[in-house]
Amino acid sequence: MKVLVIGATGNTGRLIVPRLLRDGHTVTAFVRQLAKVTVSDDRLRVIQGDVRDALSLDAAVMGHDAVIATFGPRTLAKTDVQEVFMRHLVSAMAHGNVRRLIDLSAWGSGGAAVPPRNPVVRYFLLPILLRHLLADKERGEAYLFASDLAYTNVCPALIKDLPPRGKVRASIDGAGLEQVMHREDLAQFMVEQLATDQWVRKCVAIGY
Prior knowledge:
alpha/beta
């Protein structure tokens, strides 16, 4: 499968690219800074672009079978970058006739997941520290949900940079899940979605 990875040098994207290559996929990494790509492989192509540039996203999407998006802003300040990005991406995928999208979101996206149990997350991180980021993502995902794309919106809770645990559990409402996700397992779960339609057009909460 030919897979475009947007956000390929971010914390999660950099784990996804080598997994895709190990699984035999042909990968295009869409990045802001070419120098940050440290993986080299005959089946890896690296292109520089800006998610705010509709033309560069159009060109990047063309010819692929699927897109994995792990893009996220590098600021907690008020911004519209995720809204603009998703609007451009949905349009680019329509133009390029590419329907499969695996998107990295957050616990609670789509309104189905149970509230976070961790009081720090529930009463400080989400409503205060991350309020602008989440509002921007919500506006962007409105374009995604209104599209006809075969998306899977992957919604982890608290992400930790720890060794993989395996045995990831997933559901629509997240009930009964341990609301934490190790990033290695998150990357693996996202790659695995390319081979299944179980969560197509759904927001899926993942935990342990």
